[in-house]
Amino acid sequence: MGREGTLFFRVTGRDAATRARTGILETSHGEVATPAFMPVGTRGTVKALEPRDLRELGFELILSNAYHLFLRPGHAVIRKLGGLHRFMGWDRAILTDSGGFQVFSLADLCRIDESGVEFASHLDGTRFRLTPELCMEIQEALGSDLVMPLDDCPPYPAERSRVEESVGRTTRWAQRSLGASLSEGQHRFGIVQGGVHLDLRARSAEEIAALDFEGFAVGGVGVGEPFALGREAVACVSAILPGAAPRYVMGIGTPAQIVDLIGEGIDLFDCVLPTRNARNGTLFTSLGRINIKRNEFREDPGPLDPNCGCVACRRFSRAYLRHLYQCREILASRLNTIHNLAYFASVVVRAREAISRGEYARFRTLPEFSGEPDPKGCGNRVDS
Amino acid sequence: MGREGTLFFRVTGRDAATRARTGILETSHGEVATPAFMPVGTRGTVKALEPRDLRELGFELILSNAYHLFLRPGHAVIRKLGGLHRFMGWDRAILTDSGGFQVFSLADLCRIDESGVEFASHLDGTRFRLTPELCMEIQEALGSDLVMPLDDCPPYPAERSRVEESVGRTTRWAQRSLGASLSEGQHRFGIVQGGVHLDLRARSAEEIAALDFEGFAVGGVGVGEPFALGREAVACVSAILPGAAPRYVMGIGTPAQIVDLIGEGIDLFDCVLPTRNARNGTLFTSLGRINIKRNEFREDPGPLDPNCGCVACRRFSRAYLRHLYQCREILASRLNTIHNLAYFASVVVRAREAISRGEYARFRTLPEFSGEPDPKGCGNRVDS
Question: Could you tell me the pTM of the whole model?
């Protein structure tokens, strides 16, 4: 790695006072402006939305999950139907997570050894074995634009020896992943582990950066550790990874955390927060978080967020959104999801503008992002 | 009544061989071409859809429910927020059912006497009393275009004496409803009862037709009786009601039943079938009903209905729709609802065209509508 201006990723701007940068990912399914936030579409659908909604919101890249699609409907079915883009009706870029993290967090009786992970399906208990090679095969069948290898992601907290073991194994699995063949136009990322141990993070980052990946991800953050520790790990890794490749922090985070980590040179983010919280009635706005079920909104004729131009804010009142939520109406999930994603989209769009103007240091201290970030990472990256 | 060409309703065409007719309802929220099917939006939302979806599907009139909105969020709240159209973001016409039927079918400890109905809320057990006057007051507050009075709808089967009592009471309540004041532009319907007894139906139709209503509804069908009996009742009533006013059969039915009753001179229909069945994976198509969860669709790349132009059919495969349903994804409810409503919309649009061409007798015997109609009515009219 270390190519400046590869065909895949181009850095288009840098902030002088921080490590923030703007860039363009060139994929077979269009350009992706970075920093970017990816909505999570675990099972081949961003919950409650159609692909045209995501386009309307301006997203150029979404995340899906190889493990979940492997279990249902099966990657062979999706290959037969022309790949994941065609299957779900989305013609822009897709990153698929390998699903290793999900296996560890969802599957029962998960057993890990050097060859891979054996686990019982969280759906029906059927036993499967995921290997680095199979994870590549699944994602090759799906036709994902950005492909993630199987990694060994220990829980938090974990013994240092367990984290050390995971670093070595993650590197060996990364090497095996590189041996698998993908289709033209698919781009392979490496994943860095190392928990909250900065020396292990540094070792993992150096080992993975030495391999022939086109992008790099920081895994094992947002798994329960205090954000300050995860943040330190990300900053440490980001400084080691080659500047010419895109950097992705997996499963993070709140708007404040995203804005913070953009300042550390991170280009890509995904998180279930906007979509899952939407379904639970928690809405992110330019004025702070709102719990729409609160009685104070019962007769409130105003828009959810006066600074937002999304359909939910343009056409409906807080009183109506509260009513839908109280009645457990499906439309509540839909409108709340549209709004929360519109807000997350606006955060990265404004971050890009601030970087272009060289004003990122000021941007990231806006009161909007100054709320105490969640003490812990936002949890897992599967919106289920 | 008996005005030909009132400002409210205009008959624009008649089929020679059947009693089918086309017409236009003129409302303060736009024209409604009839025969029309109304999607059911019980709580101020047609489940899983936005108002813009309903417009895209061509609907000009939807149904909502005074009883449900009275309980939550309360008609005073909706009045304060500018009425139901504004509250739910729908600028075309709305018919509200009084909710009498729902009180009888949902509420516990429902007690009926001459003054009205006393019942316990199905939400929290709070005791309320609905009277003909209160039902008008609620709908006045909501600002519904078409307003239904409280009626006494006995279950099926019921003693003849109970049905006879309900006919008398429904007429007396209708008279009381006419005493309540509505806002300009609101149009009041009368409801005919009488169960499956044709003499009672005739008596009720004559009594209600003699009152100063702008439209007439047939209630007490689709409540569990064999369709053949409900159908006879509707035909009997339709022949008695004045031809210059719109006729509405409440809570019916399958496409075959709707097409059949259009032939008896019915102009308006509502039913939860397309929306509720959509959420249960049953899809109405030009080729018959499909249960999308069936294994045969697992790898089916074709559209749900090759003769349908809705978003679900244009952009997604049966395999994908099956996958969404199997995963209990919200998008399954949304796409299935869009399709089923598109199909019901196409049935009435094609019925109108057939009437205009004077070919309704042929249209109603198309193989598409020749399947055995459900032996029983489709059940209640609240999509919950």
Answer: 0.96
